[in-house]
Design goal:
Helix content is about 30%, strand content about 20%. The strands form four sheets. It has an eight-stranded parallel β-sheet. The protein is globular, with a radius of gyration of 25 Å. The protein is α/β, with parallel strands linked by helices and about 525 residues long. It has helices at about 5-25, 60-65, 75-80, 95-100, 140-150, 180-200, 215-225, 250-265, 300-315, 350-360, 480-495, 500-525; strands spanning about 30, 50-55, 70-75, 85-90, 105-110, 160, 205, 240-245, 275-280, 320-325, 365-370, 375-385, 385-395, 400-405, 410-415, 420, 430-435, 450-455, 470-475.
Length: about 525
């Protein structure tokens, strides 16, 4: 067991003790029990746009990665596992919520899973009993629960997602809602009204749509909701549209455009769109191999996917985006897909470092612009006094591209977060873009490894043509790495005062090794 794992286990044990001491006396209690006020978030929190699902398992690593928001599921059946008159604080303990707030993460709660006592349908997916009764009727069990839940966590959780993936038919894998679209409209409407009774600042999010299970679901939902004469004055009873996108980053542009067009039909063109889940889980992790992957994604491709997805989402005007999920917790079954940026043992996959890179070099984006091309993608992120440009090949062929310089030097960053300073020649940076890993049947469902270029320069995105890159050459197979190495070497040769001699590197490395071995005599566990 390494030191980091030992420290994490101690932190988890301490958290468990805190939970026991905090709630042992309470047991099954009421949601209106006295609880302390929420903690103050940090004065300078991370950029709220970049999130990850269920970071509470390792909050210290989420702090390190500058995760700005997180999603937690609040199971109705667990909070009320002892009956309608009891409240199970163990399911979503206050200490866990407060630790997320202290780390600067806004919490978004998902409400789902009907308890057996509250439905005549299937436990978990059934329509709540009394759903069509008035909101103030005690027989409307959904309204009673939402009111109690929102009041219990008010000031800690002020955003609530109503159910999950309601666009999947119950008979289909992943189906989680037994009701009709009309029933879901009523579920949202009741939740909006009940929640606002106890928290005027609450925001109600539609359940995350998979989109592809029913591309017309949002249109059907709004058509039914618009029949309510009070819908318009109540903002159609929701504040945010949520969507889930996997494996194909370029599909984000089409999905967001489709959702935006549907919203515009009802005068809701400014309604925020969030991507609550996104990822491309890998099949090749020896710790958790995926036996039957739908898409052949390697761990390195998962990291590439995140950069492409987050870049295009920002360019498409998505307000927030989150990775599903932060960690493989609980441990996936053998042979099944691993979604986590962290493995169950808390060790990071390559995508974890990629996420950290993005929260550093994508943060504070005030405007983003996408320049489409057939051969490669480019996204420009305007970040005040900084500009980040992201490039990746769309086809199997690697490319050599020329990028107009915006300043006298730039930071070239790869998906691991490794950085080098480069300098333009003739007003241009030259970058290599590795080709995409394309499948004979699925094609190039995502691009190649991206390159991230960061410059200390403010830009007006209306002038995007002067910032657009162009192709210098198409690279033969296997030449991407060789060209990139040569280019990096020549850049340092052009600035000899900034170069580091190999002998110096060797001496420094030997010195560090000697120091480490000496320290290990006293510090390393036997």
């Amino acid at each position: 067991m390494n030191t980091r794992t030992r420290q994490l286990n101690l932190a988890l044990f301490a958290a468990l003790l805190a939970a026991i001491f905090s709630f042992a006396a309470a047991g099954s209690a009421r949601a209106d029990d006295d609880i302390p006020p929420p903690p103050e978030p940090p004065a300078d929190p991370p950029d709220r746009r970049f999130g990850a699902v269920e970071t509470y398992h390792t909050p210290e690593l989420a702090d390190e990665a500058n995760v700005g928001w997180t999603r937690i599921i609040f199971y109705w059946s667990e909070l009320k596992k002892d009956g309608p008159d009891e409240w199970n604080w163990f399911h979503a303990p206050i200490y866990r919520i407060d630790r997320e707030i202290e780390g600067g993460r806004e919490i978004v709660g998902v409400i789902k899973h009907t308890p057996a006592f509250a439905t005549d349908g299937i436990t978990g997916a059934g329509v709540p009993r009394g759903l069509y009764l008035p909101v103030d009727d005690p027989g409307n069990l959904w309204a009673v629960f939402v009111r109690e839940l929102v009041e219990a966590y008010r000031g800690r959780v002020d955003r609530w997602v109503i159910w999950n993936e309601p666009d999947i038919e119950l008979e289909t894998f992943g189906g989680d809602w037994q009701g009709t679209t009309a029933d879901y409209v009523q579920l949202v409407r009741v939740a909006y009204l009940a929640a606002h009774e106890v928290n005027p600042d609450v925001k109600i999010h539609l359940g995350g749509l998979t989109y592809w299970h029913n591309p017309d679901y949002l249109s059907e939902f709004l058509a039914l909701m618009s029949k309510d004469p009070t819908a318009a004055e109540n903002d159609y009873y929701f504040d945010v549209v949520s969507v889930h996108i996997y494996f194909k980053p370029e599909s984000t542009l089409d999905i967001v455009e489709s959702l935006r067009e549907t919203l515009t039909e009802y005068g809701l063109e400014d309604r925020p769109i969030w991507i609550n889940e996104t990822n491309a889980p890998p099949y090749d992790d020896p710790a958790q191999p995926w036996d039957d992957p739908g898409f052949p994604v390697t761990q390195e491709m998962q990291a590439s996917y995140l950069i492409q997805e987050f870049s295009l989402a920002l360019a498409a005007g998505v307000e927030r985006i989150a990775v599903y999920k932060w960690i493989d917790e609980p441990m996936p079954q053998p042979g099944f897909e691993p979604y986590g940026l962290l493995r169950y043992d808390r060790s990071p996959r390559p995508a974890y470092d990629t996420f950290r890179m993005m929260t550093t070099h994508f943060a504070d984006t005030d405007e983003a612009f996408h320049i489409p091309r057939d051969d490669f993608q480019q996204v420009i992120l305007s970040r005040g006094d900084l500009t980040t440009r992201v490039f990746w090949a769309r086809t199997a062929a690697g490319l050599l591209i020329d990028v107009p310089a915006l300043s006298e030097s730039a930071l070239l960053v790869d998906q691991t977060g490794a950085e080098i300073v480069i300098y333009p020649h003739g007003g241009m940076y030259t970058l290599d873009l590795p080709g995409a890993s394309c499948d004979p049947d699925l094609g190039c469902f995502m691009g190649g490894e991206p390159r991230v270029l960061v410059e200390a320069a403010a830009v007006d995105l209306a002038d995007w043509p002067v910032m657009a890159a162009s192709v210098q050459a198409v690279l033969p197979d296997g030449d991407s790495f060789e060209v990139n190495t040569a280019r990096t070497r020549s850049l340092f040769e052009a600035q000899p005062e900034r170069s580091v001699k190999p002998v110096v590197v060797l001496l420094i490395s030997l010195g560090l090794l000697i120091v480490s071995l000496g320290a290990c005599r006293f510090l390393c566990p036997s």
